[in-house]
Amino acid sequence: MQAHGDMVYLHRKTVNSAGNTWWYLRIEGTRKYGWIYDPYLTTKDSDENDDGIAKVMWC
């Protein structure tokens, strides 16, 4: 089990026949990959260089 607040990289999103969103992700600093149900994810906006822009990058 991972700690609350771990950084993850989102690789793929899918919506099943019940309308539920799932994400395929990797936990930062590990080789752990897997699917997670969307309500279990939270996002945190980040501005790495204080320029007022939060950048979103997809793998």
From the structure above, extract its key features.
59 residues; mainly beta; three-stranded antiparallel β-sheet; 34% strand
Task: Give an account of the 3D structure.
By secondary structure, the protein is an all-beta fold. 0% of the residues lie in helices and 34% in strands. The chain contains no helices and three strands. It has a three-stranded antiparallel sheet with strand order 1-2-3, with no helix packed on it. The chain starts with 7 loop residues before the first strand and ends in a 22-residue tail after the last strand. 0% of the residues are buried. The mean pLDDT is 78.
In short:
The protein is mainly beta. The protein has strands at 8-15, 21-27, 33-37.
Summarize the SSE layout with pairings:
Layout: E1 8-15, E2 21-27, E3 33-37
Antiparallel strand pairs: 1-2, 2-3
Instruction: Please bin the fraction of helical residues.
Output: under 10%
Structural class: mainly beta
Oligomer: single chain
Largest sheet strand order: 1-2-3
Average of per-residue pLDDT values: 78
Rg, rounded, reads 13 Å
Sketch the topology as an H/E string, one letter per element: EEE
N- and C-termini, Cα separation: 23 Å
Shape: extended
Largest sheet: 3 strands, antiparallel
Query: Which parts are unreliable, with pLDDT below 50 for 5 consecutive residues or more?
Result: none
Number of helices: 0
Strand content: 25-35%
Q: List how many beta strands DSSP finds.
A: 3
